[in-house]
């Protein structure tokens, strides 16, 4: 499912009309009717429906929605929030059809009029503003949006909640807080931004027959269950433990032994054939009882943390490093040297990211894949960019960093963005706020380590790992856990249910 900017969406519309030969009036009809089909399961025929229409295509979709509902016997009222001269082209055509079918258009006069209609409505259809808005909404629409957000009516937005930017980078906006948003053809970038996604409410994508085109130099794809089922390797009946990868996890310290234990167990639960934990002697006894299936590699330590030393990694297919290691300089020197020396795919997380922050040049020169898995705070530490700016521009920041440093970047968050060195981006669609707990990242690292050792492309392996990790949390919340009591170890135990569903 392609994720688009406003400019890309306009280009897809243009190609559909000019190259595909599809009339714009037909596309608007398709959009309105498709949205109504998605609305029907959530609306009651006895309820009154208020459709708020603006200028442009979004308003035109609103007229189609209103006419379709009216002819199906619903109680529909339309309020036009712009002067008549702003209803042009296809929107004007569908306004006339609405009138031809006996509909009435109430033209906006003042906010008291809107307040009265809103208080009488059970359902509000927001077709005021589309994807073309930039910056703050002008009056009187700004006041209307505020009034919509004050009433208790079920609010359904067409394509995008009015007032919300389609693209990343906008920080000042006032937008409709929708209960449902029915997105036309492709999700817009803002759907996956931390500041914007809550405005969408529950969302679905409706298809209207637009031209298919890969418009961007690096694709952006929302990664869903169908993608996981298509790309996740099937285990052969004749496979053995060596078939599914020998992984090494390096981490742990006397104060944080649990981190590596969770990574080890998650890797094994996610299908790794053999997993070895590389850690210091003080940690072995505390983690061995939690993960008896792993083997262990003793590493030199001092004062409860690792020190610089050679490590033979020739027998392993991939390495994960950083979880629970601590941040003292000797441990950091060990990480930097290992990253330079090994010729295997390596995943760097947690404390390991702090270890390599001042030596990113050596990361760029690696020949084998390097995977970094920062959350926004760690990304700020790596880039020198503020957390605020990273949250405003996560797609662009990720793309530039991955390209500049030749890495696969997993920028963790409510919608984790996975970026390859060529700028291709896959966005995870699973997970919930129950994962906002210590240890969730350690579990994810274990899942990802297992995935990158299977027969799939690197970016697909990372996207599948993120999906599986989030899906485990989702299934647990839907059954016997809550977002408050969910633990990282619960997510490990829940992986079995995910693999059964896949």
Automatic annotation (TrEMBL):
UniProt domain YjeF N-terminal: residue ranges: 9-216
Pfam families assigned to the protein according to its UniProt record, in alphabetical order: Carb_kinase, YjeF_N
Gene Ontology terms, MF aspect: ADP-dependent NAD(P)H-hydrate dehydratase activity; ATP binding; metal ion binding; NAD(P)HX epimerase activity
Record note on cofactor: Binds 1 potassium ion per subunit.
UniProt: AMP binding residues: 412-416, 441
Listed Gene3D superfamilies: 3.40.1190.20, YjeF N-terminal domain
YjeF C-terminal domain ranges (all copies): 224-502
PROSITE patterns, sorted: YJEF_C_2, YJEF_C_3, YJEF_N
Signal sequence, renumbered to the chain: none
Gene Ontology biological-process entries: metabolite repair; nicotinamide nucleotide metabolic process
Entry's EC annotation: 4.2.1.136, 5.1.99.6
Cofactor(s) annotated in UniProt: K(+); Mg(2+)
Keywords of this entry: ATP-binding, Isomerase, Lyase, Metal-binding, Multifunctional enzyme, NAD, NADP, Nucleotide-binding, Potassium
Protein residues bound to (6S)-NADPHX: 57-61, 130-136, 159, 324, 375, 442
Catalytic function, reaction form: (6R)-NADHX = (6S)-NADHX; (6R)-NADPHX = (6S)-NADPHX; (6S)-NADHX + ADP = AMP + phosphate + NADH + H(+); (6S)-NADPHX + ADP = AMP + phosphate + NADPH + H(+)
Binding residues annotated for K(+), in chain numbering: 58, 126, 162
Top-rank lineage group of the source organism: Bacteria
Stated family: In the C-terminal section; belongs to the NnrD/CARKD family.
NCBIfam families from the UniProt entry: yjeF_cterm (TIGR00196), yjeF_nterm (TIGR00197)
Role of this protein: Catalyzes the dehydration of the S-form of NAD(P)HX at the expense of ADP, which is converted to AMP. Together with NAD(P)HX epimerase, which catalyzes the epimerization of the S- and R-forms, the enzyme allows the repair of both epimers of NAD(P)HX, a damaged form of NAD(P)H that is a result of enzymatic or heat-dependent hydration.
Subunit text: Homotetramer.
PANTHER family: ATP-DEPENDENT (S)-NAD(P)H-HYDRATE DEHYDRATASE, ATP-DEPENDENT (S)-NAD(P)H-HYDRATE DEHYDRATASE FAMILY MEMBER
Protein name: Bifunctional NAD(P)H-hydrate repair enzyme
The organism of origin for this protein: Aquibacillus koreensis
């Amino acid at each position: 499912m392609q994720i688009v900017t406003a400019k890309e969406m306009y280009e897809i519309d243009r190609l559909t009309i000019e190259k595909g030969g599809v009339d714009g009036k037909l596309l608007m009809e398709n959009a309105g009717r498709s949205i109504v089909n998605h609305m029907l399961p959530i609306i009651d025929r006895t309820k009154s429906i208020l459709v708020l229409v603006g200028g442009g295509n979004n308003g035109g979709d609103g007229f189609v929605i209103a006419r379709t509902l009216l002819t199906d016997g619903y109680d529909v009222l339309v309020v036009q929030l712009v002067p008549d001269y702003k209803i042009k082209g296809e929107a004007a055509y569908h306004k006339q059809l609405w009138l031809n079918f006996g509909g009435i258009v109430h033209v906006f006069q003042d906010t008291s009029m809107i307040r009265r209609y809103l208080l009488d409505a059970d359902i509000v259809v927001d077709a005021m503003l589309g994807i073309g808005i930039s910056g703050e909404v002008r009056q009187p629409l700004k006041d209307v949006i505020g009034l919509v957000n004050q009433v208790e009516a079920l609010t359904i937005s067409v394509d995008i909640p009015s007032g919300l930017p389609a693209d990343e980078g906008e920080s000042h906006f006032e937008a409709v807080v929708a209960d449902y948003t029915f997105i036309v053809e492709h999700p817009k970038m803002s759907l996956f931004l931390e500041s914007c996604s809550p405005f969408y409410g529950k969302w679905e994508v409706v298809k209207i027959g637009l031209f298919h085109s890969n418009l961007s130099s690096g694709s952006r794809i929302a990664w869903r269950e169908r993608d996981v089922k298509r790309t996740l390797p099937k285990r052969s009946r004749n496979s053995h433990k060596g078939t599914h990868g020998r992984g090494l996890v390096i981490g742990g310290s006397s104060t944080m032994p649990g981190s590596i234990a969770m990574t080890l167990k998650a890797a094994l639960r996610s299908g790794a054939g053999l997993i070895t934990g590389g850690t210091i002697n003080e940690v072995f006894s505390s983690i061995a009882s939690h993960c008896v299936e792993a083997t262990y590699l003793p590493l030199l330590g001092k004062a409860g943390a690792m020190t610089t030393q050679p490590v033979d990694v020739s027998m392993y297919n991939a390495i994960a490093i950083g979880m629970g290691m601590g941040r003292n300089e000797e441990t950091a020197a060990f990480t930097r040297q290992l990253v330079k020396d090994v010729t295997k795919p390596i995943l760097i997380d947690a404390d390991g990211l702090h270890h390599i922050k001042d030596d990113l040049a050596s990361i760029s020169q690696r020949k084998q894949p390097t995977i970094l898995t920062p959350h926004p705070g760690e990304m700020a530490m790596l880039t020198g960019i503020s957390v605020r700016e990273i949250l405003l521009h996560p797609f662009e920041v990720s793309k530039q960093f991955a390209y500049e440093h030749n890495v696969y970047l997993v920028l963790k968050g409510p919608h984790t963005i996975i970026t390859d060195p060529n700028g291709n981006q896959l966005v995870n669609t699973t997970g919930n706020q129950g994962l906002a707990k210590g240890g969730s990242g350690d579990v994810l690292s274990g899942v990802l380590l297992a995935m990158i050792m299977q027969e799939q492309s690197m970016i697909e392996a990372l996207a599948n790992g993120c999906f599986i990790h989030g899906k485990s949390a989702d299934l647990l919340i839907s059954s016997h856990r809550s977002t408050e009591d969910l633990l990282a170890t619960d997510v490990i135990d829940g992986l079995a249910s995910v693999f059964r569903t896949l």
